[in-house]
Every structure is written in C-alpha cells, then in structure tokens.
Design goal:
By secondary structure, the chain is of the alpha/beta class. The chain is built from 7 helices and 10 strands. The structure holds adenosine-5'-triphosphate and magnesium ion (MG).
C-alpha cells in the first residue's frame, strides 16, 4: 500500500463572528459575536437547541455561507469560500448512485486533477480505514446507512483536509450503528490527527468524542458557553466521570 503523508494541521480562529438572516421584514441574529479558538488536531463538539445556528456556523467555516461581520482564520489566513483544506460531512452522504464505492471515494481527487491510479490508491487506503475493503466495488444502493456514511467519511478524508466539519453525521442512523460509528470516528480522528468540528444533538456523542463542547444559545437568549471534556481516552460511557460529565452538560440545558 502506498505511503500516505500525514495531514497538515488546521488551526481555527473565529473573531466576533456575526450572521443574520431576513425574517418577517426584520433580521434574525443567528450568530452574534461568536469568538472561538480551535487548536490543530482538536475535536470540538457544537451543541445547542434547534435553530441556535450550529449548521450556520459550520457552513460559514466551510465557506458555503458568508458571515455578516467578524472573521474566520485557518492557520492564520482568512477564509474566502470553500477550499480543499476543509471537508464537510452531512447527515446524508449524498453519494453518486451510479458509481461504485471506490469511484465515489476517488472522485474528489480526480476532479482535482489527481491521476486515476494515484487517486484510486489513496481511495483504497481510506476505504480500508473505514472497514469497507470488501465493498469497494459495491454500489451505494447495496450499502446500509452506516456503511454509506462510512463511504462519506472516506471520501472526505481522501482529499486529506486539515479540518473535518461534521453536521450531525450519525443523526439518521439507528442507535447501535451510531455507537459503532462513534467508536470508528474516534479511532480515525486519533489516527489522522485531523482537526474536527462535530455538530450534534446527542450530548453523549459530544462527550464521547470531543475535547471541548461549545453550547450555542437560542438566538437572542444568552451567550455561547464552553465546557472542557477532561476525560482520559479511550472513553467508557459507563465510567463515573463520563456519567458526571453528561450530568453537567445536561444541567447546561436545564435538564436533569
Ligand atoms: N439560508 C437561510 N435563510 C434564512 N434563514 C436561515 C437560513 N439558514 C438558516 N436560517 C435560520 O437561522 C437559524 C439557525 O439555523 P441553523 O440551521 O443554523 O440551526 P441549527 O442549530 O443547525 O438547527 P438544527 O438543530 O435544527 O439543525 C434558524 O432560525 C433558521 O431558520
Ligand atoms: Mg442544523
């Protein structure tokens, strides 16, 4: 197997970020003055109620959406639009239905002009990393939901981004598959040392994977809060410290 060079490392700095949308003849301030520093190789989870701006923040980071004010710096450089330093994984992997797993994963490199043999070698490396070697020739409709999402992860990793942006990546999966995918993502993150921002509704998922949790408030109600997840890895969901962390995070939402 070809040697794959390690990722470059992606540091993120967000300063005074504001974003609003038109609503009922006025403006809805979704993000108002968000400040955030994410170290290279860190895993940050973003949680918050529906409509709190999690996806909006991720889209601004991805360069899919412009902010109204403030700035986003990656490795010290302002973000303008999308770039191959960042890859986004959505809830649904959106695979090309007529193309094999291998073709789907290699596609991102081929459109960037990487020769086919090299693109395929890299694609096979990441297909193996997500445990799908035996399905390289399969079509998307022959895969389960969890397998399709793993193809999406392999496709994102193949372009070797500095930063992986995930928007509820396991939200559509059943409970057991979701747990397995969280284990897998944790292992991949540790191996690839990629900076990861994970939007999730699942507080346990946030605690299992993240170094830090950012809690976004509903627009116009309160400020952004951050909680360090100071737990050793690999993490065990049944460990008392894990359970205590979940209790603290739930208390942030007024839940008990
Ligand atoms: N393109 C858009 N045009 C107008 N309003 C938008 C747009 N995108 C998002 N919004 C509004 O911004 C707010 C935040 O939306 P966003 O999708 O970021 O929330 P979220 O935290 O990801 O929610 P969820 O947990 O439901 O996914 C919502 O009130 C939404 O209606
Ligand atoms: Mg969302």
């Amino acid at each position: 197997m070809q040697t794959i060079t390690p990722f470059p490392r992606g540091e993120i700095a967000i300063r005074d970020l504001t974003k609003s949308f038109a609503l009922n003849g006025g403006r809805l301030n979704v993000l108002s003055g968000v400040n955030l520093q994410v170290s290279a190789g860190e895993c940050l989870a973003i949680v918050g109620p529906s409509g709190s701006g999690k996806t909006t923040l991720l889209r601004v980071l991805a360069g899919l959406e412009d902010a109204d004010g403030g700035e986003v710096l990656i490795d010290g450089h302002p973000v303008h639009g999308t770039g191959s330093d960042r890859a986004v994984i959505f809830q649904e992997p959106r695979l090309l239905p007529w193309a094999s797993v291998l073709r789907n994963v290699a596609f991102g490199l081929e459109v960037r002009g990487v020769p086919q043999a090299e693109a395929e070698a890299k694609a096979r490396h990441y297909i193996a990393l997500v445990g799908l070697t035996d399905f390289a020739e399969a079509l998307p409709r022959q895969l389960s939901g969890g397998m399709a999402q793993r193809v999406g992860i392999a496709r994102a990793l193949t372009v070797q981004p500095e930063i992986l942006l995930l928007d509820e990546p396991f939200g559509a999966l059943d409970a057991m598959t979701k747990l397995a995918m969280q284990e897998e993502l944790s292992r991949i993150w540790a191996e690839e040392k990629v900076t990861m921002i994970l939007v999730t509704h699942d507080l346990e998922e946030a605690i299992f994977l993240a170094d830090r949790v950012l809690v976004l408030p509903r627009p116009g109600s309160g400020s952004v809060r951050q909680i360090d997840v100071d737990l050793p890895r690999p993490r065990a969901r049944s460990a008392p410290a894990f359970v205590e962390m979940r209790r603290r995070l739930m208390a942030e939402f007024g839940l008990h």
